[in-house]
Amino acid sequence: MAVDPTGADLKRFLAEDPGGPVVMLNLLQFREDGVASYREYTTRIGPFLDRVGGEVVYAGDLATALVAPEGWAWDAVLLVRYPSRAAFSQMVADPEYQQITGLRTAALDEAVLQAGLPWPI
Q: What angle do CA 112, 100, 49 make, to 5 degrees?
């Protein structure tokens, strides 16, 4: 399973943009000894989030699944809010940001990265 979006993924992500803020769901399954690398990534991503107006909404380990498909095996979840899909795309295209993405890639065995649309509650 891929853990990083491709250029085609990002193109589709922008083409399907309904406008407004986006919350990115990150479901993470770590490689053996991958937690340290991912934690390093999370300590270094802050300035890049700040530049585009992004913010971590929640980050934490996953525990007991009450209802889940057989074989559910995610280790952690991360929710990050961006002011727009363009802001997310701008961040991941930043050459300086790309220098730290190897930490994320090396840390993960599997991942889900999915855009969420806020409900007007």
A: 70
pLDDT in tens, the chain (121 residues): 689 899 999 999 999 999 999 999 999 999 999 999 999 999 999 999 999 999 999 999 999 988 989 888 899 999 999 999 999 999 999 999 999 999 999 999 999 999 999 888 8
Please give the Cα distance from 7 to 79 (Å, whole number): 22
Tell me which DSSP letter residue 121 carries. Answer: -
Dihedral sign computed on CA atoms, order 113, 114, 117, 118: negative
Q: Is the pTM value of this prediction over 0.85?
A: yes
Instruction: Sketch out the chain's domains with CATH numbers.
Output: 7-64+71-116 (3.30.70.100)
DSSP annotation string for 52-92: HT-EEEEEEE----SS--TT----EEEEEEES-HHHHHHHH
